[in-house]
Amino acid sequence: MKSISDLKISISGIRGIVGKSFTPRLILDFTQAFSTYVGKGKIAVASDSRPTRDMVKHAVFSGLIATGNTPVDLGILPIPSFQVYVKYSRANGGIDITASHNPVEWNALKLVLKGGRFPFSFEAEEIIDIYQQGEFRKENTFPKKVYEEDAFEYHRKRLLSFADLDAIKEKKIKVVVDSCNGAASPYVEEFLKKLGCDVIVINNDVNSPFPHSPEPLPENLKQLSEAVKKYGADIGFAQDADADRLAVVDERGEPIGEEYTLALGILSYLRYKKISPIVVNLSTSRVIEDIGKEFNVKVFRSRIGEINVVEEMLTYDSFIGGEGNGGIIAKDVHLCRDSFTGMVLILELLAKTGKKVSELKSSFNQYFIKKEKVKVSLRQSLLIMEKLKRKYKNEKLNFKDGIRIESDEFWALIRPSNTEPVIRVFIEGKDKKHVESLFKEISDEIKRLRR
Amino acid sequence: MNNLRVSSSGIRGLVPDGLNVNIASDFASAFSTYIGEGKRIGVAIDGRKSGFLLSDAVISSLSATGSNVVFYKILPTPILQYLIKNRKVDAGVSITGGHNPFNWNALLLLDEAGFYLNSIESNEVFNIYHSKEFNKVGWQRLGKIEYENIDLKDYIKRISELVNVDIIRKRKFKIVFDLSNGAVSSVINDITEYFGIEPIFLNDKTEGYFAHNPEPNPETSSQVSSILKNFSFDGGFIFNSDGSRVSIVDEKGGAFSEEYTLPIVSKAYLLKKKTPIVTTVSTSKMIDFVARGYGVSVFRTKVGQSQVIHTMEARESFIGGEGSGSVCVRDFSNGYDSIFSFLLILEYMTKKDLSLSGIRKEFPEFFLLKYKVPVSPGKMYGAVNHLKEIFRKEKIDLTDGILVERKTGWFNIRVSTTEFILRIIIEAEDKEKAFKIKDELDERLWGVL
Which fold has domain B367-448? Predict the structure, then answer.
């Protein structure tokens, strides 16, 4: 096999590189398939700030009109705000044009169904099936598109009623925020000012290129760290291009790590909102179990993928959850990863405890987590997974998503990627050396098996 | 029947059964690939419901293949052609069904001078279209997409260099306009204001529904006629949906055949400048009458804007057009412009101090018969070839279909490039002679179809 296609059709939508696979024809067809699936009505359309957004958007409009649906153009909008809009405007569905944390040359269509949620896997399979059959609903009504002036409004309202405004406002927290010139850029400053924060914004121009890779990883937070130190801020926030994930920098300019973003959010929720079971995915840090113990609530672990977390939150009647990559989900606002919800929860925690971010972080058990990938061909990956199951059969195993090995000292998750020819390995433990040697053992085994 | 027709003017069909978004996307990609990366391409629509459906697909595809897009929304094709000639944009795609019924639409391609593509250029575009080998550009080089509300000032200024504005203003024309719910609706106000015309506008809403077929001719003139019969106006004009054709109704409500537009505008223009005239083999001989009066020659081509205007260039002709009500004045632009034609007629009326009915009297009374015969796609060309055999011993011209010249009159039978019909035109000294020819043709066609 020469190389793997850049085109990814998966349950979260369709993704590709502009100038390679992500062409107007592909966008037209996929939009028509989705539009055929959701039935007739209004379909919301928004984008993040990528420079390819207009090209993609026009093809999406055309595909919707061709299938008799009315496009509602929301302009540039964060994806959580988009999902909230779809729900409360009673749209029939939505297409968000965003490749999230992927580099600038990528773009994608994220599909949202009535009620503002992503498709469950069976629904996504049905949409992909329509796409592959290529038979779309044909209409000659040609509805006119409509424009929405302030699509952020529904989200803003829900966030402001979720936040304890008086408590946060009183502290006048000094915040630096880096929205990566992404979809949150037009909204975040005004929003944080409504929370009474002293706000310094960096990278909030949607017409400028991404200043750094739009994934909120520690290595992309240098500019934010500098700014926090320079302005003597209490906290720094970084949002990714579609503003679903959040990263945090403490008052000394140190990134706290994405896993602890989620921990701070969940801690705040359980302490100040209400008691609820927690749902996180299988690759999230055990710090969440520690919090669960403290509040005596159950922690459920879902398969990887935002919609899987959401599905289990519905199943277990959970109000708080998320992913260790900085994606906090609070049902009170909406069942989706939301960096704005994350900021509200963390600011509320700062305001009410009066503690510094670094102090709050050090109050948790400190774990060392390693996330790596090992190259394998697509053909080999499933076979290797089967062999690994046999190899570790004497350990405590969970096969819900890949292989998860549990012990008191550590946990490891080994799973083939849906998007790259790699097997991903996640290991977390208290001792760094132990984690490193376990990783070496597992990755050597994969390398041996792939030969 | 596949409801899709391709011709050198572009790609045309019933939407969505013939022309759909995927075809529009590929065709725009092919055109953009042909024009080459980095150019600015103007895009316009007429008032049809499917306009935005197709423009969104076209805009996305032009951008994805590296062309910058200037979207004018609803704009007559001739104004887009004018903008191209004056280098506001480098090329164009006009999304318009022209005179076709409301549920049709088309993508018309305009080259760097505002011409419809010639047959060699359009062949190349179709080859790219069928090969699906489109230019693909990365995110840094995607075409920019701009929206522009057209400022008509330059367009009007250029008109006023070629027609005498003052004398038109002084005459204080009162005119009834039927805009066929098409693109001229978007600009006509500025024109009437500038030229001091008191207007009544009919069918000037561009909401996608047509009060009648947007084909200017005596049949579609009835609304305008009824107003003129009852109220005092100087005349009426019926425009098609993209502003490339116009027909005339006189001050008493008498609807002229659309064949009158070209000879009248030519008369007006030849007063200013002597130039050969180019028209098609399917156009009334009235134009020869005009040409004789001014001592200029007439060249006849196949039917179609592309053929006529490219021939005008080759023959150094500055006026040309077709019997459908289309006229091009090449000093002004390289397309059929109904607005400019209309203003030339007003100027002529003023200069000669004539009414529209007075102008008509300047022409000999020929009798014209134009009709269509529906025919299945498979039989179209066979029928015409069969007729060639039948008439081959007469004085026959095969430039487009069959043209037969007789002492008492002439007729032309050809395959339409836009619909599944045979178009037949008969012109004779009087009605009786015309119908005698029609009876003969009906009998011959009966045998073939």
Answer: TATA-Binding Protein (3.30.310)
